[in-house]
Amino acid sequence: MKEKRLEEMEAFIGERNTVKMNELAEHFGMSMSTLRRDLDKLASENKIVKSYGSVSLTRPSVSFLHSQNTIHMQEKKKIASFAARLIDNGDIIFIDSGSTCGLITDFIPDDFHVTIITNNLDVIIRGMRKENLDIYSIPGKLNRKNNSFSYMQDCNPYKDYNIGKIFVSCAGIDIEYGISHNEVSERTIKKYAIERTTNRILLADSTKFGHIAPLHVCEIKAFSILCTNEQPPEAYIDYCLQNRVQLIYE
To answer: 115: helix, coil or strand?
Structure first.
């Protein structure tokens, strides 16, 4: 029980880079004394770094990568299945980094021929078993934390592709601050992909709403469709209605 909680806590910290201790205590429903003991355990294993009132991940450990890919798995699968229904036979699409985006290929019908451009290693691995998918990967360095490739050149890697739809992930979604992300290189790739088409689909689970990551990507209204796993807060529903963003959540 405790080991599972520690894995989930490590994944929670890793997804946000830095987390305040009171936020951790509230999220996991524990007292500060119990939280400090758990954090001391993670710190002793060199998995986190504690600073005044907050903690951050030292590096992407094996347990973190495993937890990142399994935590909230049912919610991620639901969102990925919603996204896959938006794909038509013959489409040329871009699939972004992120564990939810990495599941989309599982739900593409076997009789659909689809061309995929991606920087997501999970998309490549999971898509290899489906002969109906043509997969192109951008060149770059593998980011082991997120299972994605970071583009290393100062030009748009998608400029020669006729991309019809893009499926994009994010670290945070907020009405005032828009779509945000943690990684500079991944944020750049998202912005390049957004330039290629107006048919843009955003994938964001319920934990991303109201969260603000360090790097601004774009406004929510830059997307035509937002897929999530449950009904978002009323303010987001109103925003999407006002800005003609289609919400898909059930």
So the answer is: strand
Spell out the residues 6+ positions from residue 133 whose beta carbon is closer than 8 angstroms to its own. Answer: 105, 108, 113, 114, 115, 116, 127
What pTM, to 2 d.p., does this model score? 0.71
pLDDT digits (tens, 9 = 90+) for 175-231: 999 999 988 888 888 998 998 899 999 999 998 999 999 999 999 999 999 999 999
Contact by Cβ (8 Å): 47, 58 = yes
Confirm or reject CATH 1.20.1250.20 for domain 2-68, answering yes or no.
no
Q: What is the spatial distance between Cα 96 and Cα 118, in angstroms, rounded to a whole number? A: 6
Cα–Cα dist 7/179, whole Å: 27
In this structure, the number of other CB atoms found within 10 A of the CB of residue 169 comes to 25
| Tens-digit pLDDT profile for residues 44-99 | 887 788 877 888 876 544 444 444 555 578 899 999 999 999 999 999 999 999 88
Instruction: Give the single-character DSSP code of 111.
Output: T
DSSP states along 158-208? TTTS---EEEE--SEEETTTEEEES-HHHHHHHHHHHTT-S-EEEE--GGG
Pairing between β-strand 148-150 and β-strand 141-143 as defined by DSSP bridges: antiparallel
Residue 168 has pLDDT above 60, yes or no: yes
Q: Are 127 and 107 in contact (CB under 8 A)?
A: no
Where in the chain are the domains? 2-68, 72-248
Q: How would CATH label the architecture of 72-248?
A: 3-Layer(aba) Sandwich (3.40)
Across 79-88, 161-170, 181-190, 232-241, least confident range: 181-190
